[in-house]
Amino acid sequence: MQTIAGILPLMLSPRFILFVLLGSVSGLFVGAIPGLSVSMATALLVSITYTWSTGDALATIMGVYVVGVFSGALSAILVNIPGAPSSVVTTLDGYPMARRGDAYKALSYATLYSFVGSVFGLVVMAVLARPITDIAIRFQPMDYFLLALFGLSTVGGLTSSNYAKGLFAALIGIFFSLIGLDPIMGNPRLTFGIQELKAGISIVPALVGLFGFSEVLSTVASGLRDGEVSGISQQNIPLRTMLRELPRSLWYCTIGTFVGALPGAGGPVASFLAYGQAKRLVRNPSRPFGEGAYEGIVASESANNACIGGALIPMLTMAIPGDAVTAIILSVFYVHGLKPGPTFMKMDIVHFYEILAAGLWGCIFLLLLGLLIAPRISRVINIPKRILMPVVVVLCVIGAYACNRRPFDVVLMFFFGILGYLMRRRGFPTAPVTLGLVLGSMMDSNFRRSISLASTSPTPLATLFGRPATIILLVLTLMTLLSNIPAVQRLIRRRGA
To answer: Whole-model pTM?
Structure first.
């Protein structure tokens, strides 16, 4: 009841609704256009919303997030090019449906069950955020350090097929987070004599480079080929028929919410897991899976949209982003002076209500835009990349410069863009770099605080590692690191056999 009372004024605020609508429409077009991504759009919005009020910024970004995740399905169905990594599974059945003339039906199923998944994830977030906060509020500095370390170690395994590459990418982010003046001693660290680096690495140009400019470089390197859009003809699909998949979709939503709460897992992992469950649960699909079964679209879209609420849970309660977009949203919090973590629900409950209300309005706009506008934007999806990419480059430059109005930030953006491109070419994920960049300073300060406290104690080891929460986090971190060592994996497989 308290949560309902908190979000009701926001749900009825015309200004708040307008900003969510602005973000939702932006997310629809950005997510639907191959070559753009929700991560890129959110990173650019950080710089645009820098001078806005926190409520307006959160409303706009949540609109982009919710609708942008769904809109990746549009190009996946119509062009066979996923607009987002989480929409890869949707191409398996969505594009075959479009090829045989059922594009409208495929889009309708994607819209309805993206709505179901998004609402499910946000409701779970509203229910679980407070209990998790009550547990996390008892954390000590060493617990925060180990929590961030555990999140980064998990990211290493879930965002890359090669665990070592994912972990190395996280270490790169931590390295960049340490550049600047030492917060305790006041001495320059890792600045290499460059005066501009004494202020540290600004988050905004780094994000714009990693997720915006690197996307442009990757697109140009792979060739500016444009896809052929499938035609869309209006079809009459009874709502009762579409709702037959609702009971199974709730299971897919549960999978998506749980996977979303794992730092770094996100929509691609959730959609593949849900798709596998669909193949096991659906005994008589409308068509064979992979050849145009709408049941496959239901599984993929339910799961990857449920990840939204799941990914926000660790970000809000423990300052551990669940995916790349929530890592960027975390940077929005820091830019606006907010501090997500165990005290967030106590100190900044109003902003929690803003996120929840914006997410729910985003779900409503997802449904409306998906049913009314999505079938009519095939021309937008087919914008030639030779026109689109220069526009994106200009937006990247403006976004990097606008935050601090420093030409050096534009240089940083280009640097991180080239770094992101080279990492992608070599199979290194960029999301762990973002998480390391955001969490590195927190890890540094909490580790040094815990060492300082332990040095004055007669039992330093007990002070550092003697609490139940610390032991649990340490064990989880060590288990994650050890279980991803190839020799240990071979031993486990041998024992299992």
So the answer is: 0.68
